[in-house]
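Lab notebook page, bench 4
Experiment: in silico fold of construct C2
Operator: M.H.
Input chain length: 537 residues
Purpose: comparison with the prior construct
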Amino acid sequence: MPDWPASITSRIAPETHFGRANLKCFTDRPAHLPAMLAQAVARNPAGDALVCDDIRLSYVQLDQQIAGYAAGLAAQGIGPGDRVALVLANGPAFLPLLMGVIALGAIAVPVNVREGTPELAHILNDCGARILIHDGDIAAAMPAAPDTPTIERRFAVGATAPGSDHIDDLLHDPRPGHAPAALAEEDTAVILYTSGTTGKPKGAMLTHFNIIHSAMHFEACMELGSGERSLLAVPASHVTGLVATLFTMLRTAGCSVIMRSFTAEGFAQTMAAERVTQTLMVPAMYNLFLLRCTVADHDLSHWRIGGYGGAPMAQSTVDAMAKALPDLKLMNAYGATEVTSPATILPMGFGVTRSDSVGICVPCGDIRICDSDGQDVPDGTPGELWIKGPMVVPGYWNNPEKTAAEFRGGYWTSGDVGSRDAEGFIRLHDRRKDMIIRGGYNIYSAEVENTLTAHEDVIECAAIGQPDPVLGEKLHVFIYTEAKDLTLENLRAFCAAHLADYKRPDFATFQQTPLPRNANGKILKNALRAGLSANSP
């Protein structure tokens, strides 16, 4: 059975936090996020902390910029517990502004720039943000002032925007002798709003304690050391970009190399030019990299860790990556906003042989596989994943009802269906709500999607249940492909070698554009279902 080495487990001891007893915690953790930054500045003062386009900030320069934004925010009256919303795409201002907010003991609320205006209004009002900082080129999507009564002032990054001051007005000289904020590790540092695929988004409260443990999990499990350079290709406002790249690089005193938007060729060029060592992306990005780039044209010899999550990676993609980059260690990581990113990580060296798995529980975590009554199920039996540990958030902002419903006995009840084998590896089968029941047989959509993604012409896919008067549901798949001759019969023939007959798709919709996703990158299966319903006779 694989287990984390003693070099990791010897640094762990039980503690009580948020009223949850026996949490396994790293004993050598920094006291809070500004302390973690200070350690990085001391370790690597002249080294790259942030790279974006032609902008490079050393750790000393990053620290100075953070202090400048903190001083400007303090001049606006921002202090401990106040909320500052950041509606910013990937760019060089995101990290300094984020840490400037946190340095004051205030709470940063990063929001994806793809959110619609009504969702933005809900988030800003729900968290009670006092300051709104947004990209100037999306000013038209910002809610009107009367719709966000708690917002006292707006600042625009990049382009100027009516009704917003320019971000340069917020960059002040740090006040000499200014005492740092008194911070406690259980204080909320960041509120991240979950995707809201069902109902309105909920604000998960990520504390200093949560974020530091997740960054340390990535550091330890991915064996990250000095000189790391991580490419940020997913949104910084999402828990993966925020924690797996930005905060993990702060923890290791490494460099965050920021892509404003992902393209396969741009990714390959940036990876080579910046000598990137680690990535954490969704499998579709690796697929596009293989499909559209000639790997041998780029020097990727520094790339050691290829982390992925959010969806299974097809075995064909795993094999192709291993062939093209034999020294690259592929590592699946499964998590969620509520667990501050990783709950499981595939240990080093298992990327090819156990690609069917999301790995084993992180060193400080505890995962139960439970039936509908909350009782543990035997190994190999599917059940709901219940997750406990110092990375699990204390709850949702301003939402005690949802907190009480989803957090039980110190565990977060994920809503994900998975199983654990005798060796401790966990397989993720589906979201409970996405399971398809066809003639009394359970079909896990993730299994179908993983199989179909292995087809050479399928870039990504989604499987949903289509109502049927006889069988209850039939299987409908949505396929993103660039091939113009792909048919349902092709897919069914391909599945015949891999899946039981009842798991083969009954219907297929083909499109040459990506599948619809919400602002956090999750495929909108509700929208796919609604489209089917609207088009049904």
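Observations: The radius of gyration is 23 Å. The chain has a mean pLDDT of 93.
Next step: discuss at group meeting.
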